[in-house]
Amino acid sequence: MPVDHYENFPVASVLLPRRLVPAVEAIYAFARSADDLADEGDALPAERLAALQEYEAALGRIERHEPETNPMFVRLAATIAKFELPMQPFYDLLSAFKQDVVTTRYASHADVLDYCARSANPVGLLMLSLYKAADEENVRDSNAICSALQLINFLQDVAIDRQKERIYLPMEDLNRFAVSPAAFERPEAHGKWSALMRFEVARTRALMLSGAPLALRLRGRIGWELRLVVQGGLRILEMIEAVNYDVFRRRPKLSRRDWLVIFWRALRMSRKSVAAAAQENPLFPPSPTR
Known about the structure:
- The model is unreliable at 1-6 (pLDDT under 50).
- This protein is mainly alpha-helical.
- The protein is globular and about 60 Å long.
- 66% of the residues lie in helices and 0% in strands.
- The longest helix has 22 residues, at 190-211.
């Protein structure tokens, strides 16, 4: 499928059953274009919010089974009807994109996770729904994986987000490690910055590992796809550590060699290895020494 943005992970890979490709394309087109309305170009905030409101109105028409003329929403409506997808995840995505227009700082980790619950977790829920596998346990682990992926993206893109005057690292963590947003890139702040990022990476790795059993529990192609996603996220965290957390000058980006490592690790994933890794990386890691 055409993907005109760099994505860490395959959007519709060869592991995806061909019967689901049109559905994933329709969902991706909606989410990607809505995200771009919030982020890209030079539109004013009011214009961005108005455009996203039009998306929300289109969802309402789909929900009411009213005619739609926009080809993207025509495809989305057909996908929702065919696979009996829930509507709330689409509204949640728009809620997160609207928040991006008006919110540039997050006070706490809980606030960031609330954003992730609407910006990332809905995608996992929709994928599980396509596979008819959206039970409570699977959704719980999917939420952990999706939130971890969003957090990894924030850690990877600190410099890019800073240019947009956004900071997704919790203010409580910046204060805890005495890191000023104005001093992110200054050499004299590097020690404090490294301590902060070490803590964020450890917490995010633990969250990813907490959801990893889902990749082993689901059978077939979706399980293998999830193994790659989990290992890909963990690999990026390793790359952040490898550059000593200097994501300003060396933004981690998966290469062909990295994908070979990811494939190998995905093949070797087992319940025992995931459990051991989770035990070594508790979900609530102790605060590193400054």
